[in-house]
# Entry
Amino acid sequence: MKGKSRLPRELAGYLKLGDAVIITDQDHIILHHHEKWDGTGYPYRLKGEEIPLEARIVAIVGVFDALTSKRPYKDSWSVERALSFINEQKGKHFDPSIVLSFFCYFYEKAAQKKGCDTVRIKGI
# Structure
């Protein structure tokens, strides 16, 4: 998790965590970020809110980064395809409330770049 230990202030606000959250127990997050909301993850098959909040956040951010990045073994996915996958995995792999927060943050930033005041999110 080197380099991924700080949560952006804007995302922290959406998750109602206050100002930027510094994740101090990286081993705790690293251990649990492969757990899945439905209990099918690893290493302990934690389910739902048994999974630490920070690990649930890192799971979505990590998957989005992995999908949209080119790797030696795969091409990068489009942002739209990655977002669609994350939405499909809501309630399975990912905490539904974290997915909603992720989409709200993502689409608000996109709307701001286009000069829009509001954005509508369909299907999440």
Confidence is low (pLDDT under 50) at residues 1-5, 16-24. The two ends are 28 Å apart (CA to CA). The longest helix spans residues 96-113.
